[in-house]
Amino acid sequence: MNEPMADVRDMYMAHTMMRREFRLLPQLVRDVATGDTKRAEVVAAHADKVCLILHLHHEGEDAVVWPRLLERGGQETAAIVPTMEGQHHVIERALDEVTDLLRGWRSTAQGGEELADAFERLLGALLEHMALEEKEILPLAEKYITAAEWKLLGEHGMEKSPKKDLPLAFGMVMYEGDPEVVKAVLAHAPFAARMIMPIVGPRLYASHAKRVHGTSTPPRVGS
Fold it and tell me: Can you list the pairs that 24-27 forms with residues at least 24 positions away whose Cβ atoms lie under 8 Å?
């Protein structure tokens, strides 16, 4: 019996979350009044969370996806994987810039426009990368990467993330997630998590979004 291959629908769901949150970040920063460190702390804490999610997501791809595609895909993957790796380097540099600026802005609420511009640059690189990945890489992953190997991506992110942030992160993804895909992802989780996460995750994100975005239902970007 052939081994099941990757179900990549969870990647589209994760990308939707990142498109939404990173699109909203530049204006969130610009809306913080100069010197309002209390509000800057709220926005910066949120920015830190989504930046870490992105960093770990790409770190997992670097470790799990690219080597297997290069090993198994021959000419189909020989050109596109190095392109993906190059885009990861660009995004990581943009993340480093954002992180450096965020540190100072968080404590002073000064220099918001420079930080917002840096988030705009990160967003541009990220949108280009995700679009290309969805077009070129995900069909190859379905062909060359097994379901068990694909699962390692999610496990990498969960292992490296602060445990207290995992329910919120899942709620962020569930906000625009396909219920069928959410169910498929949770199928591998312990029983308690399968029962609790669909209830707790959305509630945590609604509360978080109200604090960060001013509404429990921030603008959706769709799939």
Answer: 24/213, 24/218, 24/219, 25/50, 25/116, 25/119, 25/123, 26/116, 26/117, 26/119, 26/120, 26/123, 27/116
Residue 5 β-bridge partners: 146
DSSP letter (8 states) at residue 218: P
- Classify the phi-psi angles of 88: left when phi > 0, otherwise alpha if psi is within -120 to 50, otherwise beta: alpha
* pTM assigned to the model: 0.95
> Tens digits of per-residue pLDDT, 38-86?
999 999 999 999 999 999 999 999 999 999 999 999 999 999 999 999 9
**How far is the CA of 136 from the CAs of 29, 65, 80, 84, 183, in angstroms?**
33, 13, 7, 10, 26
Fold of 9-213: Four Helix Bundle (Hemerythrin (Met), subunit A) (1.20.120)
Tell me, what amino acid is at 119? F
Q: What tokens does 203 get?
A: 């509630």
Q: 């511009």: which residue's tokens?
A: 117
Which of 208, 222, 218, 219 lies closest to 47 in space, CA to CA? 208
d(CA 17, CA 220): 9
